[in-house]
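Please, structure for the following, as tokens.
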Amino acid sequence: MASIASLGLFLLFALLVYAPLVLTNRIVGRGDLLTYFYPYRDYASSVLRSGRLPLWNPYLFMGVPFLANSQAGVLYPLNLLLVGLPVTRAVNLSIAGHAFLAALGSFLLARRLGLGRSAAVLSGLLFGFGGTLTAQAEHLNQLQGLAWLPWLLWLYGRTRRSPGRGGLGAGRIAPAAVVLALQLLAGHTQSAFISLVGLTAWALAEGWDDFRRGAGLRRGPGERLVAVGGIAGLGGLLAAAQVLPTWELSRLSIRAGGLPYREAASFSLRPGLVGLALLPDWSGTLFPEFVAYLGVVGLALAVVGALARPRDGAADRTQGRSWRPVLGLTFLGLFLALGGYNPAYFLLYKLVPGFALFRAPARWLVLYSLGAALLAGRGAESLLRGEGLDRRRWRGLALVALGLALLVGVGERPAAVSLRGWGIAALLALGLLLALDRLLRPPSPRLRPMGVALLLLAVGGELLLASRRLPIHRATAPEALTGLRPAIATLLAHQPASPEPPARFLSLSDIFFDPGDLAEIHAALDPQLPPEAVYDYVIATKQKEVLAPNLPLYFRVPAADGYDGGVLPLRAYVTLERLFLPEEAVSIDGRLRENLDRVPPGRWLSLFNVRYVITDKTGDAWYDDVFYDLQHGARLGEGGVAEAAVGYVPTFPATALGVVYRPAEPVEATRRSAPMVEAVVTFRDGGEVRLPLRAGDGQPAGPDWVARLRWGEARQPTAIRFRASDGLPVLLRGVSLVDERTGAFLSLVLSDRGRYRLIHSGDVKIYENLEVLPRAFWVCRAVSAPDEAAALSQMRAPDFDPRREVVLMGASEPGRGCSEDAPTARVTFVDYEPERVEVLVEAPVSGWLVLTDGWYPGWQARVDGERVTVERANILFRAVAVPAGRHRVTFAYRPGSVLAGFVVSLMGWGGLGGVWWRLRGRKGKCSPGPRSPEAVPPARQEGLFAGSGGAAGPPPSASGSAPGPPRR
């Protein structure tokens, strides 16, 4: 068991590395941690504190499962322990705590491999606080899952019984299965998959050793693979409460049939980045997924450990057969991290289940990091024993150094600051190895504590310095997340009173703008935070202003968009994206904001209950001291569009209408007098003027033209329309009312894709869709579609009107119809909660109630208490048949997969408890059999530095090796 000193050292190091997060109130205000994990953990915690399970998420992707999305980590025990804390404090403590757990697990694994306590502490420091895990602070669930990897390998070693005790002990797989269950509950399924593949490779390497010793296939590789299978099966059983809902969700996800190879191989470690990945990134420019440094000292020790070999036939527990799994793990991690740059990865993608489900092959580097950390401990052990650096090791160090130098020199972005840092670290490593080589050869018990101290100081100091270039040391003020911005406040202020659900919004804005309070931000934060932290605060401020991509969940503002990168969004949602985007621009992760270049057609925004559209001002312009809103615009005279109107005209007396336009094709001089469009302006006094706009009217402004259409005296317009003439097609970019008497102006919103009005203008603009459909509405016509492609085709038809018609996916009854002049129904919300919706419908004739929340198995509906079928409507939404008259319709989310998962998990944990009780009752009744030499722990040592060479000495061997010094 780890000593108190070892635990204290890991805890101290966790505090030093993560000091900005643990010892202050600052947060990582960037990346997925800001825009994904803080919102998810905050929502889960708030719902759990209210006494409910967070089963449904109504704020992203127009409604999706929440608990079933494993990345939310709802059932992960260590997340549940922190539910009562503010989300920023809970996440920060979880990050540091899991680094501590990873270090402790690596320590225990190294001890099982026979390393002494000091060398095992060094291995724990290198893995727990090396680059791979420290850089993953932005990916909370990935860090949580990978922290248990060394624990899985350590506990796997306990599945083997001693010779003469019957081989594999079935009861002994339970601890390792519990660890695997924790990985699955942590929410990053890929981390569990990587761990299982690493465990399988480890088991095969050990089984190969057994086979070579004559154990046979069944007692060698076969028995070890059975143990791995048992761990996987029992671990899945224990985590079934998460696994079954996630499996159900994955069947409806875009990943159901596996990712395209291009997606699966994305974020592969490019060969040109290998040198930068394995060395500390002193420049701080490397993408976090590619960071895998152990430090130059740690890497040198790993090379020394990899080249270790038995001395004169000594049967040393830290050398020989037992280290083949570690060497294999190290190589496997590097081999698979190359992903798309490795031809073998394509074969794995095609042939091995699981490889097609995940992307970012660079994440396999965690296997390299753990294996190299263990090898570094082995290298330190051999130096502390006084074995020194022979010619073979010096040659290996030189080859590795030369290879890394070549990779850095010919690779990508060899930053000068990194080259300087590597040079200094290399000199340090060389000096340290030479010092140990001279200091401890021949070995001197009195000098060993000095050697241990030198190693720990060198390794720990380099890890601390390298970590300062990672995101955790760019921690910024907590207001980067919690502070309210004007755009958010505007949306919250426009939310209706309960029980009416708030309407959705869609953000189209980039973050290429400066916040209006940028000077105030710098004045407040520059004296307190480093420049990088202030920069992250500014970027976070802009992300909040546009509410991207999952921040709507944190502020409880429903969005039509979102981001996941895992089992979400649903495949049906991605299908609906094709209404907005060309096929090549469709993203499987959502993120419409990043792919849309203009406001989508109004009928789709209205159907999706999108009342608000957020855009920026970077495309707007000032001409002749008049501001023009150029976000929307209208294309007339092409594509069948003949008319466009200003959706909302405020009270503003004006004498002219400013127009920014662009002819759709070059205009010949002979055609300049031909009118392109005609502006029809209606006034409050009932009058109307028709003003033609000809090619060449006004003044050129780059590719645009700016014209003034005047009507003389000041009058109050109430409606403005533009009609296409028989002349040239034209793009109307923007219009503004102008009072030429005073120079006052008012920018208007002109669109051929719907009717909008501007309700907020600050750092960004917020438009209100004046034709939005309510969240629930009634239609009297329905058609059936056999699949999503057919439904999409029917919805794209020009005559499809979502206000009067619904497309049902494989409806249980044939479609009905009604006349065009049929009266509408009245729909009133009685209750709207994430897992329960109740509405009153007063319908003149039979029809369908359409609720534009996501359809998903587990949603049940009742009409006046009678169970009815929930149809899948318009590809993604829900609909139920409603007869004529007044009826109460209730939707309730009761997923059978969640119930079944909890039942299976309870049975698994109950059975595990029964096995434990039975084994506990038998304890002491059976005499222990002879113990395997591999199972003998290293000799007990007192204190952190005592006996740093590991075991007290090599055991006697057949060759007559002398026993080591007596135990203290």
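Residues 861 and 867 are 6 Å apart (CA to CA). The longest strand covers residues 704-715.
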